[in-house]
Amino acid sequence: MTEFSRRVEQVSISGIREVFEAAGEDAINLGLGQPDFPTPEHAREGAIEAIRAGEADEYTSNKGTESLREAISHRYAEDRGMEIDPNDVIATAGGSEALHIAMEAHVDPGQEVIFPDPGFVAYDALTHIAGGEPKPVPLREDLTMDPATVEDAITDDTAAFVVNSPGNPTGAVQSPEDMREFARIADEHDVLCISDEVYEHIVFEGEHRSPLEFAESDNVVVVGACSKTYSMTGWRLGWVTGSSRRVERMLRVHQYGQACATAAAQHAAEAALTGPQDPVDEMVESFEERRDVLLDGLDDIGLDCPTPRGAFYAMPEVPEGFVDEVIDRGVVVVPGEAFGEHGEGYARISYAVNVETLKEALSVMGDAYDAVS
Ligand code: PLP
Of the candidates 234, 249, 274, which is a domain's last residue? Predict the structure, then answer.
């Protein structure tokens, strides 16, 4: 009999798919983690031109093309006033691979990784795959992660903690003060802060800041992606940035696991990053309008929901049996416990659907609520 590694046996395939299947084909899907907009035309053209010119046929540099890394660096400078050396960027197969190589390069077997609970499902799985011990921590009532909770959870065995703002599944945005605290904790305790900023541009209120701006040591690495910002989830293009020595270690994992991000996707990403940013503004405006429709609707139903200030998720508290009832009635939402033990009693609602569909789903949720309460 073939044996499997202990690391992989600790990970299971995400249960979210099963929810989609249970709801049937005609279901309204509020379970998806991707924007419902097309990839901007100029991004698609970037790839098409590169393919036609024969520029997408070969391996690129392991880190990605210089012009893509310059484009990523340029966006940080332009949008956030951050100075990122293009040599300290690795283009990856989405934010997912960036998280993976960050964990592999920094976590030894048995070391602990602290992350938000409820939190993005990959943090727990990637910690196991790196041989580490997941240390999920509960959130504040507004679903942000309290730096004090992270600091209390740090032990001699802690390798890293993950910050995710705006957050999946919560839509919560950490304050600049929190980000400054996360940087201080990374500095003072000499642990790595992995800041997952794939939703950085989808913010309605407050301001997105990065712990990288505040850290005095090199104990912060930042994960970014085109996936959500430019509605490019299928292109699989993200990146990780940090100090040169950290990038060099992550590159060792990337070089052997991936070689380089897909060349055509790199060209599309470069065009998205250097081209007009209006599609991003339009998408964010539309998400904000939908968020407001959703929050009003949940309030009318009688469901409490911390106001999500970014991303495209809301996480209301729901009565027992609500999620199953909603799914039985043909609307897919994801049970909070899919994102960690402290997610129990909540549901994640993705509002990456048009307003009409959202209103239809709200009416179903209202009926489901009446049926279970
Ligand atoms: N980080 C968070 C918080 C996410 O929600 C996701 C995708 O859902 C990712 C990272 C991975 O994104 P990508 O599609 O770029 O791999």
Answer: 274
b (16+ CB within 10 A) / e for 2-30: eeeeeeeeeeeeeebeebbeebeeebbbb
Other Cβ atoms closer than 10 A to 299? 12
Residue range 207-246, pLDDT digits in tens:
999 999 999 999 999 999 999 999 999 999 999 999 999 9
Whether the Cβ atoms of residue 325 and residue 368 lie closer than 8 Å to each other: yes
pTM over 0.90: yes
For residue 1, tell me if it sits in a domain.
no
Cβ(91)–Cβ(292) below 8 Å: no
SS3 156: coil
Same domain, 222 and 258: yes
Ligand 1 contacts (CB < 6 A) are 33, 94-96, 120, 164, 168, 196, 198, 225, 227, 233, 238
Burial of 205: CB neighbours in 10 Å, binned 0-12, 13-18, 19+ = exposed
Going from the Cα of 36 to the center of ligand 1, the distance in angstroms, rounded, reads 15
Q: Which residue range(s) make up the domain with 120?
A: 41-274
Q: Note whether 158 and 134 are within 8 A (CB).
A: no
Atom of ligand 1 nearest to the CA of 99: 10
